[in-house]
Amino acid sequence: MYANEIEADLTEVLVTEAEIHAKLAELARRIEADYEGEDLLLVGVLKGAVMVMADLARELRPHINMDWMAVSSYGAGTQSSGVVRIVKDLDSDLTGRHVLIVEDIIDSGLTLSWLLGNLESRGAKSVEICALLRKPDAAKVEVDVKYLGFDIPNQFVVGYGLDFAENYRNLRDVAILAPHVYS
Ligand code: 5GP
Ligand code: MG
Ligand code: MG
């Protein structure tokens, strides 16, 4: 399906494009029911959540708003440290608004747990989380995810927005990156 040189970098496709779209449609129906008659602000975390945001937002029938934040976790390599810095802040005022954070993946949970606290402190009416993927075996802190796509094994994955060294974000599926690529 992918060009041969990309195929060689992947061990296994974990979640296919079709499975992702079916799941996002299912989550969108729940979100519509839960926020019926309310305004909703989707907050996407750059850059990994771009694909989830684009597909989830287009699944949602009612009026929504979108805003973006970029955060960086201090710490080397593939491990997040829990010390988070805002690289690009929201343009929106959150006072009195229902906010849904849209994320690609929850690994240790440190980034989202920090972000949740940060957005809650801005006077939002509610702050909830929608994440496409979660690695339960990697959790260092519990994060209360209201809308979850898939639990996956504790392996490094790429595709559908997720990168390794800024590569593979454009793959349509989520796949395990072959160890020879990063070792
Ligand atoms: P956490 O703070 O939950 O450990 O990780 C947060 C961020 O690390 C995620 O939003 C994502 O950008 C990155 N990350 C965690 N696991 C993976 C993975 O398996 N693949 C990729 N490409 N990024 C990951
Ligand atoms: Mg992310
Ligand atoms: Mg990354």
UniProtKB/TrEMBL annotation:
<keyword id="KW-0547">Nucleotide-binding</keyword>
<keyword id="KW-0808">Transferase</keyword>
<dbReference type="GO" id="GO:0000287">
    <property type="term" value="F:magnesium ion binding"/>
</dbReference>
<protein>
    <recommendedName>
        <fullName>Hypoxanthine phosphoribosyltransferase</fullName>
        <ecNumber>2.4.2.8</ecNumber>
    </recommendedName>
</protein>
<comment type="pathway">
    <text>Purine metabolism; IMP biosynthesis via salvage pathway; IMP from hypoxanthine: step 1/1.</text>
</comment>
<dbReference type="GO" id="GO:0004422">
    <property type="term" value="F:hypoxanthine phosphoribosyltransferase activity"/>
</dbReference>
<dbReference type="InterPro" id="IPR000836">
    <property type="entry name" value="PRTase_dom"/>
</dbReference>
<dbReference type="GO" id="GO:0005829">
    <property type="term" value="C:cytosol"/>
</dbReference>
<dbReference type="GO" id="GO:0052657">
    <property type="term" value="F:guanine phosphoribosyltransferase activity"/>
</dbReference>
<dbReference type="GO" id="GO:0006166">
    <property type="term" value="P:purine ribonucleoside salvage"/>
</dbReference>
<keyword id="KW-0963">Cytoplasm</keyword>
<comment type="similarity">
    <text>Belongs to the purine/pyrimidine phosphoribosyltransferase family.</text>
</comment>
<dbReference type="GO" id="GO:0032263">
    <property type="term" value="P:GMP salvage"/>
</dbReference>
<dbReference type="InterPro" id="IPR050408">
    <property type="entry name" value="HGPRT"/>
</dbReference>
<keyword id="KW-0460">Magnesium</keyword>
<keyword id="KW-0479">Metal-binding</keyword>
<dbReference type="GO" id="GO:0006178">
    <property type="term" value="P:guanine salvage"/>
</dbReference>
<keyword id="KW-0660">Purine salvage</keyword>
<dbReference type="GO" id="GO:0046100">
    <property type="term" value="P:hypoxanthine metabolic process"/>
</dbReference>
<dbReference type="InterPro" id="IPR029057">
    <property type="entry name" value="PRTase-like"/>
</dbReference>
<feature type="domain" description="Phosphoribosyltransferase">
    <location>
        <begin position="19"/>
        <end position="164"/>
    </location>
</feature>
<keyword id="KW-0328">Glycosyltransferase</keyword>
<dbReference type="InterPro" id="IPR005904">
    <property type="entry name" value="Hxn_phspho_trans"/>
</dbReference>
<dbReference type="GO" id="GO:0000166">
    <property type="term" value="F:nucleotide binding"/>
</dbReference>
<comment type="pathway">
    <text>Purine metabolism; GMP biosynthesis via salvage pathway; GMP from guanine: step 1/1.</text>
</comment>
<dbReference type="Pfam" id="PF00156">
    <property type="entry name" value="Pribosyltran"/>
</dbReference>
<dbReference type="GO" id="GO:0032264">
    <property type="term" value="P:IMP salvage"/>
</dbReference>
